[in-house]
Amino acid sequence: MKKLFIASNNPDKIIEIKDILKRNNIDIELLSPKDFNHHEEPDENGSTFKENAYIKAKYYYDLFHLPTIADDSGICLDFLNGGPGIHSARYLPGLNYDQKNDYILEMMKDSDNRGAKFVDAMCFIDSNGDVSYYEGENEGTIAYEKKGDKGFGYDPIFVIPEFNKTEAELGPDYKDEFSHRAKALKKWIVDAKEKL
């Protein structure tokens, strides 16, 4: 069976990628740093989602010499002029996501400027060392309160307008088909059969 290395230590992200691939009938052995008992991570010092995805993919590809996929994603708020963006995971250090979401809702409680988007940039390095990129975006708004328990990160405050529900309310059935990560991963799937 062909192997694919997922360059992430985020268990929620790994589960989501596995679910999306399974839903799209990609039969492949998925490996992550945990499978190699590797806990160090590269310094994500890029200035864009794309650059950070490449940094992660190249770091693990050089270590394990397996076809590697990495993504960098985040939430971009109009209220913060596109922030926290590439700093989403490191935004408000010391707080968990529940607390981060509370902070954002409090900060924006009197604002009507609630436009937002989730962005995902994916980098794939194939068995020959060739690099490809895939991107996905999801437009939405920021809720006035947290809702839903079927997501992670900023999902409980990110509203999908056509459903008037947060991604955490819509859960995996929605996310595995239509999320920013699913959109990027589906573009990769088109190429995967030739490049793995």
Explain the overall architecture.
- The chain has a single domain (3-195), classed as Alpha-Beta Complex (Maf protein), CATH 3.90.950.10.
- Strands 1, 2, 3, 4, 5, 6, 7 and 8 form an eight-stranded mixed beta sheet that branches.
- It has 196 residues and is α+β, with helices and mostly antiparallel strands.
- The protein is globular.
- The mean pLDDT is 94.
- The protein is built from five helices and eight strands; from the N terminus they run E-H-E-H-E-E-H-E-E-E-E-H-H.
Give a brief outline of the structure.
Helices cover 35% and strands 24% of the residues. The chain has 196 residues and is an alpha+beta fold.
Q: Which value, in Å, is the CA radius of gyration?
A: 17 Å
Query: What is CATH's topology name?
Result: Maf protein
SS-based structural class?
alpha+beta
Instruction: Please give the share of residues in helix.
Output: 25-40%
Classify the oligomer: single chain
Report the total helices.
Answer: 5
**What is the H/E string?**
EHEHEEHEEEEHH
Question: How many discrete structural domains?
Answer: 1
Regarding CATH, which class? Alpha Beta
> So what's the overall shape?
globular
Distance between the termini: 11 Å
